[in-house]
Backbone:
């Protein structure tokens, strides 16, 4: 149920939602101009957790900037490590051993599952169902334990290095992954039965929060938001990197454009990530996990490079301009959440407050990723 | 003991203290039950620190709430702001005056007891509305508007169901309603197919209306935490909030008592053995368990979904039920 914003002539009032509102998940602030419960205009106000990530890159060496990448989108930190490592490696011409590539894919996909689980619970909380959160965190805990065993950190991993990864994975990690895959599959079926097929849940998300493919193109939305609008675009398939071309997996695409489509994309993506992890574990070759002779203070030659990877929330791109010194001349981050949030203003116009919050939840925003 | 109770002032005092203690203790320990139950559904433990099995947690919470400073924000309507928690808690407690817990335990049996309870339950909307209105918080005002629309929408099917039931029992007297259902469970109004084949459905509808009337999830439009922060209660602190909290549980208690009396045979045993207070309490707490169970299992429904459910499903269905009952009463 929504109305055309132009048809309303009545009195409007402004509601300031956030930065401490329970539904904004972090420090997002939205200035809502409302007529009753209908939203006339929603203006996101960002910058509450701006940390100058781009400027910080300009006064430290390539290696020193590494931990920062895990703090941009802390929910899917491993994939951001991946993007930064790949960009610098391409710029400096460093090659990565095959075993390291496989380990990178396994840990990235685990991180993607952790990120989607972190979205799943709070999204249902936005709709008023409080219980699934604890179940999704139960599974996320296993993923975090696995990632902690290789990287030493539970949230802001800094596991990758230029030319490979910091540590080789051990048998415990492999066994843990192997037991996690069937368990998670079972849980996904359980989530489907308990949450996805719930009638109230379906009424809340089916046909509500429409984002047309044109709107996605206009604002540059990527990731599950774009795939929920029926556009088959995934960096892992369209601009393949690492060993993704050697693995067999599908890109889930749903044409309905509503909140349920975006929900379905993420749930199916977790399934595909499990497939990728299983295959990568089977194909894992032996060998070193670090390239030889990568200098500690990397000095890439003069030039520039753009590289993007498929983050948990969409396409994450980094552009680095090097002037031949050990410090980047300029580093530009293209984060998916910023683009995904931009379309909220247009998409939420004329919606009811409760529906707009469901739409906001289905965008899966990570506010530090917006503000960076 | 019975002789002592027969003297009117002492009887009055005993029931006054008894009812307030009953409501207060239930509000405190239902909050513990709610936390424990939600913990079971969410594979957690719930409160365990204060007392054995967390049993002293409600007392600690009560002391904390009572010790908090009551903040009255600038620009609120002070009189209404202070009055509204009282306006919510008083009618909720008033309802217990006429609820018969067993054949002898009833504070004051009134011939129009059912009517009295229905009128006092509608009173509580006014308290919430005025509280939200007086808060001068935009979220509270939205919440107030929602509460009024919701309660009006759900009172109609509730009244229609009660009217159909009264047509069968021919009385507004709650004690008599229970006495009519004495014997085994086949005598309960729930299974009174002779009066209307839709009787179990109407019991279910009554439960749904009761959830909506008490603003419980999935109809918690008033609180709607992820939309309106805490709705009408946003600006309340300390015991002001505490009274809202107690009245929520008191209203659930009234609703479950009413459901027990009207449909589940009150203090009667399902098999006709040993009727008494214990059966009433067992039935009441089972209903409360279900109410809490529903809250932790379902997401919240949209506001227009809530109104659609009432106007498009519950009201037509209860009208059909009313008509059917009319016909059946005429035939038999």
Residues:
């Amino acid at each position: 149920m929504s109305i055309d914003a132009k048809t309303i002539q009545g009195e409007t009032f402004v509601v300031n939602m956030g930065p401490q509102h329970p539904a904004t998940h972090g420090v997002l602030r939205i200035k809502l101009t409302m007529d009753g419960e209908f939203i006339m205009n929603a203006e996101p106000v960002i910058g509450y957790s701006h940390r100058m990530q781009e400027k910080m890159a300009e006064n430290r060496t390539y290696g020193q900037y590494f931990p920062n990448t895990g703090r941009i989108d802390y929910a899917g930190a491993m994939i951001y490590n991946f993007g930064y490592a790949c960009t610098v490696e391409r710029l400096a011409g460093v090659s990565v051993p095959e075993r390291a590539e496989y380990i990178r894919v396994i840990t990235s996909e685990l991180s993607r599952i952790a990120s989607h689980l972190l979205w799943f619970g709070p999204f249902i909380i936005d709709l008023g169902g409080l219980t699934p959160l604890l179940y999704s965190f139960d599974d996320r805990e296993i993923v975090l334990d696995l990632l902690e065993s290789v990287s030493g950190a539970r949230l802001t991993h800094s596991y990758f290095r230029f030319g490979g990864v910091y540590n080789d994975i051990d048998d415990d990690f492999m066994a843990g992954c192997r037991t996690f895959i069937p368990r998670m599959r079972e849980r996904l079926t359980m989530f489907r039965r308990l949450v996805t097929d719930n009638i109230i849940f379906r009424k809340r998300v089916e046909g509500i929060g429409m984002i047309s493919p044109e709107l996605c193109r206009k604002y540059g939305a990527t990731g599950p938001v774009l795939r929920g609008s029926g556009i088959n675009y995934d960096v892992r398939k369209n601009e393949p990197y690492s060993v993704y071309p050697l693995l067999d997996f599908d890109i889930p695409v749903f044409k309905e454009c509503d909140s349920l489509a975006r929900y379905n994309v993420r749930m199916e993506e977790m399934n595909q990530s499990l497939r990728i992890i299983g295959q990568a574990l089977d194909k894992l070759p032996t060998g070193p996990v670090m390239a030889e002779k990568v200098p500690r203070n990397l000095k890439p030659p003069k030039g520039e490079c753009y590289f993007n990877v498929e983050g948990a929330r969409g396409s994450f791109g980094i552009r680095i301009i090097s002037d031949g010194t050990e410090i980047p001349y300029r580093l530009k981050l293209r984060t998916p959440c910023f683009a995904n949030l931009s379309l909220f203003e247009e998409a939420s116009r004329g919606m009811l407050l409760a529906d707009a919050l469901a739409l906001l939840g289905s965008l899966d925003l990570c506010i530090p990723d917006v503000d960076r | 003991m019975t002789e002592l109770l027969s003297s009117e002032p002492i009887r009055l005092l005993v029931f006054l203290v008894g009812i307030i203690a009953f409501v207060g203790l239930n509000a405190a320990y239902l909050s513990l039950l709610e936390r424990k139950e939600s913990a079971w559904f969410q594979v957690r433990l719930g409160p365990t620190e204060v007392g054995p099995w967390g049993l002293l947690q409600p007392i600690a919470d009560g002391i904390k709430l009572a010790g908090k400073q009551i903040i009255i924000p600038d620009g609120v309507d002070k009189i209404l702001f202070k009055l509204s928690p009282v306006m919510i808690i008083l009618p909720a407690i008033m309802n217990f005056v006429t609820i018969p817990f067993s054949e002898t335990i009833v504070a004051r049996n009134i011939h129009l007891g059912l009517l009295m309870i229905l009128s006092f339950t509608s009173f509580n909307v006014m308290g919430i509305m005025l509280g939200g209105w007086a808060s001068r918080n935009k979220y509270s005002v939205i919440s107030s508007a929602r509460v009024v629309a919701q309660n009006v929408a759900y009172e109609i099917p509730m009244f229609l169901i009660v009217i159909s039931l009264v047509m069968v029992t021919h009385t507004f007297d709650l004690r008599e309603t229970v006495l009519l259902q004495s014997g085994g469970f086949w005598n309960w109004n729930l299974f009174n197919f002779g009066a209307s084949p839709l009787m179990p459905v109407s019991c279910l509808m009554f439960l749904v209306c009761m959830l909506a009337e008490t603003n419980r999830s999935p109809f918690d439009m008033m609180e709607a935490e992820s939309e309106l922060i805490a709705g009408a209660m946003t600006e309340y602190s300390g015991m002001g909030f505490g009274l809202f909290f107690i009245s929520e549980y008191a209203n659930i208690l009234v609703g479950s008592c009413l459901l027990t009396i009207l449909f589940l045979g009150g203090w009667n045993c399902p098999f006709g053995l040993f009727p008494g207070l214990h059966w009433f309490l067992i039935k009441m707490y089972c209903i409360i368990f279900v109410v809490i169970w529903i809250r932790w299992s379902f997401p919240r429904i949209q506001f227009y979904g809530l109104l659609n459910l009432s106007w498009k499903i519950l009201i037509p269905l209860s009208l059909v039920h009313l008509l059917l009952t009319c016909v059946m009463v005429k035939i038999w």
